[in-house]
Design a protein that fits this description.
single chain; 441 residues; mainly alpha
């Protein structure tokens, strides 16, 4: 497959920005609107798959086992963020600084090495956390689900960054078919616990299919991303992932299975549809910033502000509709466990997204060490506040901590974007081998 048609001249290679590739020549090129539509459908199908598996598990599994599965999937989603940071975000950011288009930035070997390592760590963490509450077999299978959640998502992310949107959509279609089939088999057989191994099988087959679709012989010769920089971004993604999922993990640890299930339902039922739009558009936002960052900070900040406004509007509309439906039509079902958590968890997710956007803008104009420290301080404070909240007042204390930490993130985001590095608008170009790419944490 020729990449010439999909990959423009690198940024800065001739003093001008590249054109914006939309699709590999596996078919006619897509327009900007078509790209957005395909990405939303792609992410929508993927999210429907996760939604179906979670809802089926929540309705059929007993509360203790579902709470354990919620912890395993939460750890898996932390791993997804970490694997994306290593394998896709780091190459794109470093490539932009060196004049390489996003579509030409990903090195398969180093990207997959990072994803496999993250998946193994997720499996180990899940196994250790669940071993004292569920059977050894269930802990092992849930650990496998956590690892495979990471690996099934990764090929699709590569395809998205490389503008191979149709193939990414094909991967999501496969996952949807496998997930729905798994749910139907479990319901027909009336064997709820069969859902967990079937979830693992669905992820495994999706990973294999995605790996085949994302193969690219021309990517082998690309230079691997600087390990220190990739590690720093991965650590940041891990921090923010822990901050976003720690509530489920903490409540499970203190044996509050109803609250654990309620937060998982809130994330899946209510904010799942939000993630369809947010995660579908987020890679496009990152690629747009990578293309325009050397034009100065003003256009980059405008993109970031519009993105934050869109995220806030999406969450407000979806959250309000979901709360109305849960409070009226589903008030007697187990799904109503999500109601007490909608507002605080939604606010926490929204402020985390805004903080992410602020850090993405700052990342292109300042030292990676500085961004890493902002992330570390934010998550340490967030996790610390939640631990104190759970210790003092259980679920209620945790929700108070989530809201307080979100307010601090909101203020910090404004301060970051208005800071000197962004205000000056001077790209901090760092050539390969510079201290920025190799300095230790």
């Amino acid at each position: 497959m020729s990449r010439a048609a999909e990959s423009p001249s690198p940024i800065g290679a001739s003093g001008s920005k590249p054109s914006q590739p939309e699709e590999v020549p596996s078919g006619p090129a897509l327009s900007q609107r078509a790209v957005v539509a395909v990405r939303l459908i792609d992410q929508g199908l993927w999210s429907i798959s996760v939604f179906a598996l979670n809802i089926t598990a929540g309705l059929l599994l007993d509360t203790d086992l579902f709470a354990g599965l919620a912890v395993g999937s939460a750890i898996g989603f932390i791993g997804v963020a970490a694997a994306r940071a290593w394998g896709t975000i780091a190459p794109v950011v470093v490539g932009a600084r060196e004049g390489i288009a996003p579509e030409q930035a990903i090195h398969r070997g180093s990207s997959w090495t990072g994803a496999l390592l993250v998946a193994a760590l997720c499996a180990g963490a899940t196994l250790a956390w669940l071993s004292f509450r569920v059977s050894a077999w269930n802990a092992l299978i849930i650990a496998g689900v956590a690892a495979l959640i990471v690996l099934s998502d990764f090929p699709r992310q590569i395809l998205v960054i490389e503008s191979r949107y149709r193939l990414a959509l094909s991967t999501s279609v496969c996952y949807l078919v496998l997930s729905i089939a798994s749910c139907l088999v479990v319901v027909a057989a009336d064997e709820p616990e069969l859902l967990i191994p079937l979830w693992a099988v669905s992820c495994l087959l999706t990973m294999v299919i995605g790996s085949v679709l994302s193969r690219d012989p021309l990517a082998v010769g690309r230079r691997p991303v600087a390990i220190a920089y990739a590690w720093r971004l991965t650590a940041e993604a891990f921090y923010i992932g822990v901050g976003g999922q720690i509530s489920i993990i903490l409540l499970y640890f203190v044996s509050d299975n109803e609250a654990t299930s309620g937060i998982r339902f809130a994330n899946t039922l209510v904010f799942g549809p939000c993630f369809v739009l947010i995660q579908g558009l987020q890679p496009l936002v990152m690629k747009q910033i990578a293309r325009i960052f050397d034009s100065g900070s003003a256009p980059v900040v405008r993109v970031g502000i519009r993105w934050c406004g869109l995220v806030a509007a999406i969450m407000l509309v979806v959250g309000s509709l979901a709360a109305l439906i849960l409070a009226t039509g589903l008030s007697e079902s187990r799904l109503a466990l999500a109601l007490p958590f909608l507002l605080p968890i939604g606010f926490g997710i929204l402020t985390a997204q805004i903080f992410d956007a602020a850090l993405l803008i700052v990342r292109f104009y300042s030292s990676p060490t500085l961004v890493h420290r902002f992330r570390l301080v934010s998550v340490v404070a967030d996790v610390g506040a939640q631990i104190v909240g759970v210790t003092l007042d259980g679920a209620r204390g945790l929700l108070i901590a989530v809201v307080a930490a979100g307010a601090v993130r909101l203020v910090a985001s404004g301060l970051l974007v208005s800071g000197r590095a962004v205000r000056d608008g001077v790209p901090r170009a760092e050539p390969a081998g510079s201290s920025a790419g190799s300095e230790a944490l």
